[in-house]
Amino acid sequence: MTQVPVPVRTPFPGISSRAWEHPADRTALTALRRLKGFDQVLKTLSGLLRERQHRLLYLASSARVGPRQFADLDALLDDCVTTLDSPVKPELYISQSPLVNAVCIGMDKPFIVVTSGMYELMDHDELRFVIGHELGHALSGHAVYRTMLMHLTRIAASIGFIPLGGWALRAIVAALMEWQRKSELSGDRAGLLCSQDLDVALRVELKLAGGKHLDQMDTQAFIAQAKEYERTGDLRDGVLKLLNLEMQSHPFSVLRAAELNRWVDRGGYGKIVAGLYPRREDDDNAKVADDIGAARKAYRDNFDESEDPLIKGIRDGLGGVVDGVGQAASDVAETVNRKFSDWRTNSKNKYDDNN
Fold this sequence. Notes:
Blueprint: H1 23-33, H2 38-48, H3 50-61, E1 63-64, H4 71-83, E2 92-95, E3 102-105, E4 111-115, H5 116-121, H6 124-140, H7 142-158, H8 166-195, H9 198-210, H10 219-231, H11 235-245, H12 253-265, H13 268-273, H14 288-305, H15 309-315, H16 318-354
Parallel strand pairs: 2-4
Antiparallel strand pairs: 1-2, 3-4
């Protein structure tokens, strides 16, 4: 029997989480990390009750992964900890649920929960990506800083630094959700660094979208869906896409796959594998201005390359937007007029029949 060699994965000693964080995610995190002491206070307050409650809940109701329980996952977690040079190995639990999900919970000592639905859907290599994704969240401190942002928003609202109108509040929530979605893209990048196999990473996104039947799906066709989604429709569809995404905690699977593919194509992943990545020892010297510049560039590149009708209208200038709005208004008026005409005709016919 021919033995298949075990893939040798590149470890990243001393790697900073800034290496895999999406520019928009990293900008917020760098700014928040400069608030020395506040994160520790928040960790302490949260750790007193809610985090302990969650930990006790999973300890009592789920299977804690270790050498004697789900040893395959324990080995995968060890691999990911080694690859990302994590200072700690978080606890990992398997929770009975048909929902396909994995989460990183906790601020003081983050732990990972993988549902049985996720475990049964993914194969061994795909689970490495999933665990790497969640470990990335833990190392970035996403739970800590998400909570910090919520607290800061509440404080600002209570003392009048921001308007309390419905639209203003909605804009703030939308901005926080946009950051959270970018943090999920960061997690995907961490997952890819642990997996070091783009095909495996894309298979995870395929399964999240279409289930276990990989024989009925195609990676290139799946990626093509993202391009079709982006350029399909008119200005109205562009607005509807924003509304569909507004309150989503995760980007859609098709778009996550395309974003990972883009990160690889643009050389971000290759630089890290080649050893060109920021180190944890330099995190205190990270400049918010540099991260803001990187975030602006990322958004600007996506904006310039976008084929979305709404974005193209904005890029073409006010005239493009106005033309799109005018067409949308015209279509709505035409639809209303047609429905009114149909109603009037039906009413007349019923009157004639009755007389």
